[in-house]
Amino acid sequence: MKPALKQIADPLVDKNPVAVHILGICSALAVTTSMSTALTMSVALTVVLVLAAGIISAIRAHVPSQIRIIVQLTIIATLVILADQLLQAFAYEMSQRLTVFVSLIATNCIVLGRTEAYAMRNPPLPSMLDGLGNGLGYSLVLMVVAAIRELFGAGSLFGVQVLATQAEGGWFVPLRLMLLAPSAFIIIGLLVWAMRVWRPRLAEPREFALRRPGKEARP
Amino acid sequence: MAERNPLRRFLDRPNDDPAKAMGVAAIVAALCALVLSVSAVLLRPLQEENRLAARAGQMAAMLEAVPGIAELLENGGIETHVVDLATGRISDTDPASFDQAAAAQDPERSTALTPAQDLAAISRREDESLVWMVREGDDLRLVVLPVRGAGYQSMIHAYLALEGDLNTVAAYSVYQQGETPGLGARVAEPAFQQGWTGKQVAEDGFVMIDTTSGASGPYEVEMISGASVTSYAAVDMVHFWLGEDGFGPFLDNLREGTWR
What we know:
The structure holds two protein chains of two kinds. Chain A is mainly alpha-helical. Chain A has helices spanning about 5-10, 25-30, 35-60, 70-90, 90-100, 110-120, 125-155, 180-200; strands spanning about 155, 160. Chain A has one domain (about 5-200). In chain A, about 60% of the residues lie in helices and about 0% in strands. Chain A has a two-stranded antiparallel ribbon with strand order 1-2. Chain A starts with a helix and ends in a 21-residue tail after the last helix. Chain B is an alpha+beta fold. Chain B has helices at about 5-10, 20-65, 70-75, 100-105, 190-195, 230-240, 250-255; strands spanning about 80-85, 90, 110, 125, 130-135, 140-150, 155-165, 170-175, 200-205, 205, 210, 220. In chain B, the strands form four sheets. Chain B has a six-stranded antiparallel beta sheet. Chain B has a two-stranded antiparallel ribbon with strand order 3-4. In chain B, strand 5 and strand 6 (about 140-150) form a beta hairpin. The radius of gyration of chain B is 24 Å and the shape is elongated.
C-alpha cells in the first residue's frame, strides 16, 4: 500500500484512536445520541485536527521544547473556538445541540496526542494526512456508536424514522438506556472486544500473571 | 556574514534561548488573538441574526403551547408595544426599531438600581420595555413580559406569559442563558418551565411565587435539583419585574384599563 494511503487507513482500524488507544471517550459518550450531532462533531474534530497538525508541523523547527505543549494548545484552542464560532454562525441549531462539546475538542486527547507525537517530528503533509486518518478513525467509531444508539434509542437514523415506534402506532419499543451515557460505554466496550477478536494482535500481553488462589493460608 | 533581516535573525537563534521562547510564545499568542478577534467581529452579525430567529421561534412555540391562544394568533395576531416602565403606559417609541438590549446599556435610557431595589441583580433597568399582548376583541387574553436576571454565572433571559387575569402564569420560557451545563442550564428545559404553567404569581397584590423542592400549592414552582442559585434567580427576577420597579405600574394600568 502507498505510504500516504496507509497513513489514512491505519488509524481507521489497527491504530484507531478511540477503540485501540482509548482516547476521546468523553465526547464519544456525549454526542452519540443521534447521528447528526455525531457527524457534526466528527467533521469539526477532523478539520481541527488536520489544520492543527499542519500548522504545528510547519512551525515545529522554531517551537522551543520547554513551551511546546502550551504553543500547541494555544493553536488548537484557537482552531476550536473558530470552529465553534463558525457553527454558531452557519449551523446555529446544531451548535445549540452540541453545547459545550465543540469547545471541549480543545481538551480531546486525540488532538494533542497526534500533534505532540507526530506533527512535532514530521513535515506538514504527512502530519496532515496523519491528522486526517485519526480524525476519520474517531469519526468511524462515533458514527457506529451513534447509529446503534439512535436506531435502538429512538428508532431513527439521521432523524429519519426507520423503525415505527409504539408511540406512533408501530411495534418498536425504544430502549431508554440507549439515550443515556452508560450505553455508549457498553457499546464502545463491545466494539473494543470485537476488534480484538478480529485482530488478536491488538490485545496487549498480560502485564503480570494472576497468582493462583488456594496456596496461602487463610487468615 | 551577519543576517540583516531581524525576523530571520530571531528565528536563527537556538531553540533553548529564553528570548526565543518568549518571542515564539508572544508571536503565537498575538497571531491567535488576531485570528479570533477578526472572526468574532466578522461572524457576529450572522450569529446575532440566528439568535434573534431562534428567539422569535421560541416565542411562537411558547404562545402556541398555551391553550386557546393558537386560534387567536391566526385571526388577530399578537400586538407588540413599547411600555414606559415608570408611568406604566404605552410610549410613543416605535416597537419595530426599539432595541431593548441597547437601551439597557445606555445611561440616557436606563435607570441605575439601588441594591435594595435590585432583586434581579441587573444593576441598570431600561426605562422602556417591549411587551406583547394577545387580545380577543377588547378582552386581554395574554400578556408576555420579557424578564431577565443574573443567575449563577450568566444573565438569564426569559419570557413570562400571564393570562388575562394578570395573575396566572400561562408560560415561562427561558430564551438565553449560560448556566452550568447539566445543572443550571436545565432552567431552559421543559421540565422546569412546565412547573410554572398555571401557577399564581401574586396574592392581594403581593408577589408570592417561590421555588422549592416538592412544590405544592398555587405559588410554588418545582426547583431544579443541584441548581438552587439558578432556581432562586429565575424566581427573583420575576419578583423584580412584576414589582413596582418593573412592570408593576403597567400591570396596574392593565387592570384599570388605563394602559394606553
